[in-house]
Amino acid sequence: MATKQNNTEIFNRELGDFIDQSPTPFHAVSTMSEMLTEAGFTGLSEAEEWSLQQGGKYFVTRNGSSLIAFVAGTDSLAKTGIRMAGAHTDSPCLMVKPQPELLNNQYYQLGVEVYGGALLNPWFDRDLSIAGRLIFTDKNGQLKQKLVNFDEPVAMIPSLAIHLDREANSGRTVNAQTDIPPILMQAQEKQDFQQLLRERFLNDGEQVMDYELCFYDVQQAATLGLKKEFFASARLDNLLSCFVAAKALIEAQTDSTSLIVCNDHEEVGSVSSVGADGPFLESVVERLCQADSDAANKARVLGSSLLISCDNAHAVHPNFASKHDNGHSPLLNGGPVIKVNVKQRYATNGVTASLFKQICAAVDVPVQTFVSRSDLGCGSTIGPMTSAKLGVPTLDVGIPQLAMHSCREVTGSADPQRLTAVLTHFFNLTGKLQVELETE
């Protein structure tokens, strides 16, 4: 028991370090790239020809914010199909506007735009920093880009005192335009934000051209609870799944072609060149099929494949249990959750759910199921979009969590390692993943 607990603690420290180092999708892809490189994966460029070797390990990125990694199996794609696990690199946050400078009552603030369906109240009274991608010209006028991170608290969004808003605990709403611009400092006049960036991150002769920056909470990931049964962090949705998928692919000893895809822009609909509704995964699958001389056509390969879309699920909240459907109230530390929706907001069907249950049983991991109340809507994932674009059998699963879309989220400390074991076993399976139709 002690060894198992120690392994879980080590795993969660690695998970926490990954999330802490990944305040933006750009940083998440950079951190995953380092993980994969250290594990023997070779980076590829979409702009170049690929010469894939059987058993080779590779990864490719697009826009610096989406990543696909794969092991080119020794077995033919026609025999095994492709084992796929998917996640997304983005999380709800506050993005800095292009001309953000504000000066109100001698407070220097930045205008922000809400990215995704963020819970805004938790952003108040937090120690905030700024990170993202900076585009600049060097002294020769050449366009370049770099990842930047202030890496320390530089801003805050103070709450309004209850003395000035007696309805704060009963009727306060948050106006995304006027209530949340963070305060960076006191000033007598507006400061040029690009000048601040130049002084902080660039050398002489280099000029800021543009940026994609967001605020983030600097509080680090932590294990908590009287029995250390909870794990809290920013961006659990969905960097947890990115880490788990990458870890599983690294640990797998597979003869089948196995792949992870971590898309950007899920939180805003996935319609982009790097989102799940774009061509990134399809183009990589096309290249994998072309590289396999024994492969059947792509449609036949995908028909023998399976995609496990991993995106965190809603755990039952003890103070709001009525928000869940009876019988579908996932618990923290109760195992991964199969997500079902008849309107196809999730891509799960009876066949793909059954395959996943078998995989979990093989590694002694419990399984839960989530269905929204019939009078409530639900979110969606990369699963339905990817399934629709590729025609690949798909299911949606996720680690149960609380406080989804807050800047500080909570999950069970045992479940991330469990899902890693499930995905590792999934990658290691041999043969086609199909359920035969019984005929009389």
Task: Describe what you observe in this structure.
The protein is of the alpha/beta class. It has 2 domains: 2-91 and 234-428, 3-Layer(aba) Sandwich (Aminopeptidase), CATH 3.40.630; 93-217, Roll (Aminopeptidase i, Domain 2), CATH 2.30.250.10. It contains 10 helices and 20 strands. Strands 1-2-3-13-4-14-18-16-17 form a 9-stranded mixed beta sheet, sandwiched between helices. The longest helix has 19 residues, at 2-20. It starts with a helix and ends in a 12-residue tail after the last helix. The mean pLDDT is 94.
Write a concise synopsis of the structure shown.
The chain has helices at 2-20, 25-38, 77-80, 193-201, 236-251, 280-291, 298-303, 350-362, 382-390, 415-428; strands at 42-44, 57-62, 66-71, 83-88, 93-104, 107-115, 128-137, 143-149, 183-186, 207-217, 222-224, 230-233, 258-263, 306-310, 313-314, 337-339, 368-370, 394-398, 400-402, 409-412. It has 440 residues and is α/β, with parallel strands linked by helices.
Topology:
Blueprint: H1 2-20, H2 25-38, E1 42-44, E2 57-62, E3 66-71, H3 77-80, E4 83-88, E5 93-104, E6 107-115, E7 128-137, E8 143-149, E9 183-186, H4 193-201, E10 207-217, E11 222-224, E12 230-233, H5 236-251, E13 258-263, H6 280-291, H7 298-303, E14 306-310, E15 313-314, E16 337-339, H8 350-362, E17 368-370, H9 382-390, E18 394-398, E19 400-402, E20 409-412, H10 415-428
Parallel strand pairs: 1-2, 4-13, 4-14, 14-18, 15-19, 16-17
Antiparallel strand pairs: 2-3, 3-13, 5-6, 5-10, 6-9, 7-8, 7-10, 11-12, 12-20, 16-18, 19-20
Helix pairs in contact: 2-5, 5-10
